């Protein structure tokens, strides 16, 4: 594989998920992570430019959305605060736990995405079996690690990370048994990227806050999770061997993924985020004289109508207008959905922050710049593929190297500041 070509591919995938994950910062939770994850997965399909992947583009986006979205149940606010302290042990612990949390996001997201890529008529993924095993893994490991052993990462907050860890164990056990090694590679590198991005992003947040620059450095951390997680997932994908599958898709197989991606996820985001109290308080925080109540109602209706319009257009274009039982999805049609989806998420971010009324949230306009940049880069970027296999010893070395880097970042971080607001202590 041409190294420059690979770097361009990783850059575009990183910008795609990085932008979406930064936007997710306004919404949080599972639904926000799922929306971002779907965008990240679809970007890899567009970069790969494989016709057989276009055929299952919506299924791939849904798998990525589900995988990255599951991690949204994990609470990490207190963990972020550990890395804002002064004691080496607490700060190092904070960085390592963020690495684990970000890693769980990527491991599940990359694993489900990779399995969907690998699934074929000859070797189909047994989804009911996998979901059952992951559910059982979540229950078993949560009660073992939390209820029985009392291994608490972030007391007194939720310890749902243990459930995600159990899902990850079950997911890998399934991939090992069924020899889905390419999917394993995607999961591992997505996990390494997401974990490194979360911890390194928090380091950047600490340094940014110390600098005194008036900017949303929490959002920098979120962008880093998505950027490195997306780049890692793309690297695992483009350095693995994949069987060529059918380039035609059935009309009925598109309907459910499209409805979930274009209607259900955005509607849940709207329902859970565009509350009257939140919008009124946001508007009054930067413009006390504005008609906050009137603007809030307008924003709520505009956001809802945008979701309904997007869903209606998508279902019509990709299902109703398709009369033949089987057809081929083209690059242009997948790209259209990608940019409409990312564009809607960007508009939602601007609406929920009311950044259209003020420049007080300058990072909101950087999202637009990122979307424009993707518009220039996406079609020009095409990945070639290589098969680098599983190299567990090298992965172990890379893991140890990352752990050492966090020790250095810990020493640097605690030397740059005194006690910061929001600092937490895990150990006295």
From TrEMBL:
Signal peptide coordinates: none
Lineage top rank: taxon: Bacteria
Keyword Manganese: no
Transmembrane segments: 32-48, 60-79, 91-118, 130-146, 158-176, 188-208, 220-240, 252-270, 290-315, 336-359, 395-414
Keyword line: Membrane, Transmembrane, Transmembrane helix
Name of the molecule in the record: DUF3464 family protein
């Amino acid at each position: 594989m041409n190294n420059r070509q690979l770097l361009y591919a990783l850059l575009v995938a990183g910008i795609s998920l990085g932008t979406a994950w930064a936007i997710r910062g306004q919404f949080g939770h599972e639904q926000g992570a799922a929306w971002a994850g779907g965008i990240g997965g679809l970007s890899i399909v567009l970069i790969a430019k494989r016709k057989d992947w276009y055929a299952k583009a919506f299924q791939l986006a849904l798998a990525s959305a589900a995988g990255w979205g599951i991690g949204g149940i994990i609470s990490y606010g207190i963990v972020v605060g550990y890395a804002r302290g002064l004691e080496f042990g607490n700060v190092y612990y904070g960085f390592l736990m963020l690495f684990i949390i970000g890693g769980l996001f990527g491991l599940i997201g990359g694993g489900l995405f990779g399995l969907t890529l690998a699934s074929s008529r000859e070797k189909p993924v047994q989804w009911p079996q996998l979901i059952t095993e992951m559910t059982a893994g979540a229950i078993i490991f949560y009660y073992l690690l939390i209820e029985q052993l009392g291994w608490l990462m972030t007391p007194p907050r939720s310890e749902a990370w243990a459930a995600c860890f159990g899902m990850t164990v079950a997911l890998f056990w399934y991939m090992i048994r069924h020899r889905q090694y390419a999917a394993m590679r995607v999961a591992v590198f997505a996990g390494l990227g997401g974990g490194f991005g979360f911890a390194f992003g928090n380091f950047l947040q600490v340094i940014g806050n110390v600098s005194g620059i008036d900017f949303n450095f929490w959002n920098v951390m979120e962008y880093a999770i998505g950027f490195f997680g997306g780049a890692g997932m793309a690297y695992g994908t483009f350095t693995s061997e994949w069987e060529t599958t059918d380039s035609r898709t059935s009309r009925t197989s598109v309907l459910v993924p499209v409805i979930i991606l274009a209607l259900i996820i955005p509607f849940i985001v709207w329902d859970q985020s565009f509350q009257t109290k939140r919008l009124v308080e946001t508007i009054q925080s930067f413009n006390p004289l504005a008609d906050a109540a009137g603007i809030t109602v307008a924003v709520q209706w505009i956001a809802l109508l945008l979701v309904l319009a997007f869903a209606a257009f998508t279902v019509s274009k990709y299902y109703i207008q398709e009369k033949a039982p089987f057809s081929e999805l083209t690059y242009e049609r997948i790209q259209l959905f990608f940019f409409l989806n990312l564009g809607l998420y960007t508009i939602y971010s601007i609406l929920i922050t009311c950044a259209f009324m003020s420049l007080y949230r300058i990072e909101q306009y950087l999202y637009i710049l990122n979307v424009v940049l993707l518009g220039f880069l996406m079609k020009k970027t095409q990945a070639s593929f290589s098969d680098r296999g599983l190299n567990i010893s090298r992965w172990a070395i890379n893991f140890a190297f990352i752990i050492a880097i966090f020790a250095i970042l810990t020493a640097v971080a605690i030397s740059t500041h005194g006690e910061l607001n929001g600092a937490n202590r895990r150990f006295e």
